[in-house]
Amino acid sequence: MTVVNKNGYELDFDAAVNFMNDEIREKVHSEIAPCTEQEFFTTYEKAHEEATGEEWFLSDSYPCW
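User: That's the sequence. What structure does it adopt?
Assistant: Structure tokens below.
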């Protein structure tokens, strides 16, 4: 399953989950599940930025992993 980040870059969802912060990921899961992978990913991007004050590196136009 692929998802699209806020800059239009397509990513593998399962691979991206491995780079999510555990606490933020679990918080998002408890708030919005059940949902689609795209909804989860988009919500995680926003939650990560709110929690850390920085854009998540997988939200870049051309993320480097």
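The radius of gyration is 11 Å.
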